[in-house]
Amino acid sequence: MTEVKAGSCAVVIVAAGSGQRLGHGVPKARVPLGGDAMLVHAVHGVMKAGIAAQICVAIPADDAELSAMCQRLGAEAATQGVLFSVVEGGAQRSASVFSALAQIAQGITTVMIHDAARPLTPSGVFNRVAAALRDGAKAVIPALAVVDTIKTVVPATLPATGAGLEKVSGTPARNQLRAVQTPQGFDLQTLRQAHAHAQTLDDEAASLITDDAMLVEAIGVEVYVVQGSTHSFKVTSPMDLLLAEAMLEGPLRPRWIEG
Ligand code: C5P
Questions:
Q1: Among the atoms of ligand 1, which is closest to the Cα of residue 115?
Q2: Is there a contact between 151 and 238 (Cβ–Cβ < 8 Å)?
Q3: 87 lines ligand 1 (CB under 6 A)
């Protein structure tokens, strides 16, 4: 196993999703944004933040284009003294993270897990997460207060027709809710423990895992919250792509640059 300076941070970028909701017909990491693939933006964002001794990218199996892209990114990372590794992702996001955790270099003590689907995440967010880890947090996530009122729902049928709908089962207090983003930062050992525990879950429970912090919460570790950024939004729908393009290339670009 390759070695880096003791006490360093690695960033895992998960890019093995299919990205079907974008409707491009190619894995989301390959979707172009302002002339570069989404994955290229995500990797450049990590390098610009200057917090990583290693970047490990999880990509779909047998994707020759993404493999070639990673080779170029690896060469670029090497010029900055950053170790670059690539792993084959799994069927679920958590499986992709699990594969990447096996490739973390000796000397790494903290790790951030980042979505390739958040290509415009500013350096400031990486720095805030890194600072909380340095200050002793074992787990830290960036988040934003929510602007919409959020309801929980359950399946229901209309009384007269029996037509299937949903009905409200509760309204959590909005001031206690946060919309959670990536990069999520962890003490490496803690995250490995959390993922080892996740391996014991059945398929149904595993399918409900939507972020890494959930796994750490499940083993009783406190997860701290730092300020996220509106720029870190996840590119999921064609509308998000439009916004990301406008931020990168539109006439308003100078207003959108956040450090
Ligand atoms: O599907 P979702 O939008 O939650 O995906 C978030 C991130 O996780 C994306 O960057 C996607 O590429 C990644 N992912 C993965 N392996 C999977 C599913 C998603 O690396 N099996």
A1: 10
A2: no
A3: no
Is the pLDDT at 148 greater than 70? The verdict is yes
- The mean pLDDT of 78-92, rounded to a whole number, is 96
Is 91 near ligand 1, meaning CB less than 6 Å away? yes
**Terminal-to-terminal C-alpha distance of the chain:** 34
Please, is 240 exposed, middle or buried when counting C-beta atoms within 10 Å of its C-beta (0-12, 13-18, 19+)? middle
In short, whether 39's Cβ falls inside 6 Å of ligand 1 is no
Q: How many residues appear in the chain?
A: 259
> Residue 248: how many CB atoms within 10 A of its CB?
17
> Where along the chain do its domains lie?
3-145+179-256
pTM beyond 0.85: the answer is yes
> Residue 40 in contact with residue 66, Cβ under 8 Å?
no
Q: pLDDT confidence of 170, banded at 50, 70, 90?
A: very high
CATH class of 3-145+179-256: alpha beta
Q: CA torsion 118→119→122→128, rounded to 10°? A: 40
β-bridge mates for residue 226, sequence order: 142
* CA–centroid distance, residue 93 to ligand 1 (Å): 5
Identify the residue whose C-alpha is closest to ligand 1 atom 19.
17
66 lines ligand 1 (CB under 6 A): no
Query: Hey, which residues does 59 pair with through a beta bridge?
Result: 88
Check pocket membership of 93 for ligand 1, CB cut-off 6 A. yes
What's the mean pLDDT when you consider all of the chain? 94
State which of 28, 115, 237 you would mutate to test the pocket of ligand 1, scoring each by most atoms of that ligand within 8 A of its C-beta.
115
| 36-50: b (≥16 Cβ within 10 Å) or e | ebbbbbbbebbbebe
